[in-house]
Design a protein that fits this description.
The chain is α+β, with helices and mostly antiparallel strands and 132 residues long. It folds into two domains: 40 residues, no CATH class; 75 residues, no CATH class. The chain is 22% helix and 32% strand. It contains three helices and nine strands; from the N terminus they run E-E-E-E-H-E-E-H-E-E-E-H. It has a five-stranded mixed beta sheet with strand order 5-6-7-8-9, with helices on both faces. Strands 1-2 form a two-stranded antiparallel sheet. The protein has a two-stranded antiparallel ribbon with strand order 3-4. The chain is globular and about 45 Å long. The relative contact order is 0.12.
């Protein structure tokens, strides 16, 4: 089976997730060896999430947590639940859907529960914490 990776390439999927029989994974799925250890060897009543970006803008006293997905990718249930929970704790959480070179992207805000389409210039301003 083949699966798209975050860089737009295609990976062969050789094994299934230890907690979900129908979830196929590839060699890049876990993001780190520690994430894999937790998923395989630790309690099964918790979810290990791999989130793409944490931006700590110490000059503006702002933390943003952002998950990145290609336009054709879906957010996993675990990622959704984590971002939703962090949002309720007052942390700004977002999902950016787009494809390189990011001429247009859709940014979903968990706080406002709305999506905005941004061009590349606006996306850069958003990532620079200049656009809210």
């Amino acid at each position: 089976m083949k699966q798209y990776n975050i860089l737009g390439g295609v990976d062969e999927v050789n094994e299934t997730h230890p907690q979900f029989e129908d979830k196929k994974i590839n060699e890049n799925y876990y993001g780190s060896d520690l994430n894999k250890l937790v998923a395989e060897e630790c309690r099964k009543d918790m979810v290990v999430n791999n989130i793409d970006l944490i931006i700590n803008d110490y000059t503006k006293d702002s933390i943003r947590i952002i998950e990145s997905k290609h336009s054709n990718e879906k957010l996993s249930k675990g990622q959704h639940l984590l971002l939703q929970r962090l949002s309720k704790l007052g942390i700004n959480t977002y999902v950016v859907y787009g494809d390189p070179p990011y001429n247009y992207s859709t940014v979903y805000s968990y706080q406002k529960k709305v999506s905005r389409v941004l061009n590349k210039e606006e996306l850069i301003k958003f990532l620079n914490n200049e656009l809210r």
